[in-house]
Amino acid sequence: MTAVISLGGSFLFDKTDETYKIFKELKNIDSKFVVITGGGPIAREYIDFGKAFKLGEKELHQVGIKCTHLNAFVIAKSFNTDYTDKDPRKLKMKNKILVTGGYLPGWTTDTCSAYAAVSTKSKVIFNLSKEKGVYDKDPRKFKDVKLLKKIDFNRLYGLTKGKRIPGMNFIFDPLAAKICMKNKIDVIVTNDIKDIDRYLKNQEIQGTIITCKK
């Protein structure tokens, strides 16, 4: 079995120790993994740098993509895993862990993760977030929020009104969600790295499962 991990740039830089633990634990789990890394603060800084030099929108997207691959390259070399900058729609697993970044301007890390799941026949994406999971309301604005343990993609659309919400509270890109719905791929939104092993062992997780299943 192969699983996909979407490792946001903010998670990488804010939770370096947790990232280190993830890769240590992955080697002990009986699955293969594709890890998609985000750009994080280094991408934002370079995009601002590009704006100062009057780069266009397409070029700024490309700057951000290159930053995701810089992060992926560092992670792959640090943990002695495979690295690629190829199209996520055409990935082939050779060894236990493959690390990559973004690909096309306009594609989010979510979209790349969804395409990677399809190409490697994965049925689950672990979206590691700063939030515990998906809430019924924006926790930045409301105190009486409720963590949703399991929802379907249609309800996710209802919560987000079909839009990606900045700040990673209502997580998942609409295009990525459509890909997952079409291919019956579950998405696990969590900030607990142990949820990876729990889900793969059919145990209860701490975060949220977004699913096509009733």
From TrEMBL:
**What pathway is it annotated to?**
Pyrimidine metabolism; CTP biosynthesis via de novo pathway; UDP from UMP (UMPK route): step 1/1
Q: A GO biological process this protein is involved in?
A: UDP biosynthetic process
| Keyword Cell division listed | no
Q: Which residues form the Aspartate/glutamate/uridylate kinase domain?
A: 1-191
Keywords in alphabetical order, please: ATP-binding, Kinase, Nucleotide-binding, Pyrimidine biosynthesis, Transferase
What's the superkingdom here?
A: Archaea
The broad enzyme category this protein falls into is: transferase
SUPFAM superfamilies, per the entry: Carbamate kinase-like
Q: What is its EC number?
A: 2.7.4.22
Write one Gene Ontology MF term.
ATP binding
Q: Which family does it belong to?
A: Belongs to the UMP kinase family.
Looking up PANTHER family in the UniProt record yields: URIDYLATE KINASE, URIDYLATE KINASE PUMPKIN, CHLOROPLASTIC
Q: What is the name of this protein?
A: UMP kinase
Organism per entry: Candidatus Parvarchaeum acidophilus ARMAN-5
